[in-house]
């Protein structure tokens, strides 16, 4: 840690420069890592010693010349050219990469192209997604032409069959679980204290006899350590001693170097605080590092202010360099913003020596230092962080190499792609890794998703991934609703690969209640943005980050995919499912959101409009975009679920019955609650007419003038009462009634 301001500023600037070539360095990690040569030697059974990892990768490439791949599955990166041929595609989600399009014949077809965001893959060679006449010469049935036709060695397949489960087991055990534990370390300390310090996952599991993956190459990390230690040693010691016992501790320990020799014996039976556990974990794991995760709900200005609070000064770093830090955070998805060097700068020499010696109080001082920094970001600014050891950060790098090698292995040829896909279990592997999707390192997530896209060429694996995606959907969506993660780096980008296929969707709906989980997730996400308006009703706050950043959009997109599958909209009118109930509840939250008050003519025109209308407008449009899809069925349509024992195969309402059901259970219940909170005003001339609220609806003179007793002279609300035209529940009932009239 550099204590002088100028040197700290220069160190941060150099750290930003080092990140400029990081993407390129990381993409070539398998070409430099000894893990590549070791894994390839095990897979091929060769006794030869590869001169470099590149030679090992070339060995995998030779397999593709013997049995080339039939399906492209090229994963799209941001700004890649993506081609659409409406003549050849099976649906609007099927596309080609630029290389496959240039190698295929689409003369006279209806084609277009666009620049991709992150996610998605090429469908060339997949007859379920693309017309075989539009395949390129390298994929589909033509893929075997020009190959060497040499059979792949059975020993290679046998070895891969044993290696892949072991490698993914290692991913789950050391990467996914560690990522979850890293976030738990930043959470508030519970009242129940542990009796013994927990060990780092790496050490405890290695001691059980596992073989730890090691890499002899230098560690290339997308981390940046920021230095802002401006307090004196005395101030640091005072602050550390003040927090030595950690948050939530039931005792107060006083740091005394003279008593350090006997402190261990005296404190042996006392419970450990989280700070003490972290301090001891740091000693075993090579230090602690605070990792800040990116999201798409905080603005650049908010992140700059968070960094200023973290660094503890407003004058040390310029606005321009902090803006560059923010851009680096968004580009890479995470940054190490505080580390062991900065923590040690806050401790005295005596405290550091005692910490290295394993002293509990000194360990508590060390742990409290990083917990206090984490609290600045999490509690004060609403950001998400994790605390990891150096060993755990190194394991992330090993995981990137392993994933790159597995992807190269799967892309080499169809038999090995099939074997890799078969070796990954949906429950043992896919579900835990998808569960940790937003907590995994962005480096790991990038190459994990690339591997999944490659393996989706295998139909069995696609069904397994669909099942794991469905099983983890609600918990992952709950984390996204809290503000965690970035949409374009999440597993949501994978759903379009299987939620548009009849076979997979019908199975998910019947066996795993996919529709019910989508409806529950949509309601739970919107409910995060709801606030109580009285004792019984909740209403969406249009200024909440869920609304302003459309954090409900993954649920809407997945529902659109499912409802586009033939027969699925018919299940919406099922009395046995829970989707309809959650759908009505979700629409009820949107009733009267972004309420406005009529302005008096003396107040003039609106000069500054409240930004809440944006969130309310987008939510109304998104919910309304599902109305037509939900009602795109006929009363005579059968259920797509053929199993007679399934509750989804019967109890289907007609459109008239559905309209009545929504009126009774939706509008009527909402109107009853609204009426209970309605308070009329007294009829007196001292109250201006525009402030009056009648006790009942007016029916008098309007029948004479208009010839209808149902027409109202005025709304039964005063002009000073907040009112909104956002009534999604009423609009959906209107859509149901319109559809019933058309039948």
The overall average pLDDT, rounded, is: 82
Strand content: under 5%
Number of domains: 3
Number of discrete helical segments: 31
Unreliable runs: 190-255
Strand order of the largest sheet: 2-1-3
Question: In oligomeric terms, what are we looking at?
Answer: single chain
Overall helicity: 40-55%
Outline type:
globular
Textual characterization of the structure:
The chain is mainly alpha-helical and 743 residues long. It folds into 3 domains: 296 residues, no CATH class; 66 residues, Ribbon (Cysteine Rich Protein); 233 residues, no CATH class. It is 49% helix and 5% strand. It has 31 helices and 8 strands. The strands form 3 sheets. A 3-stranded antiparallel sheet has the order 2-1-3. A 3-stranded antiparallel sheet has the order 5-4-6. It has a two-stranded antiparallel ribbon with strand order 7-8. Helix 3 runs parallel beside helix 4 and helix 14 packs across helix 15. The longest helix is centred in the N-terminal third of the chain and has 31 residues.
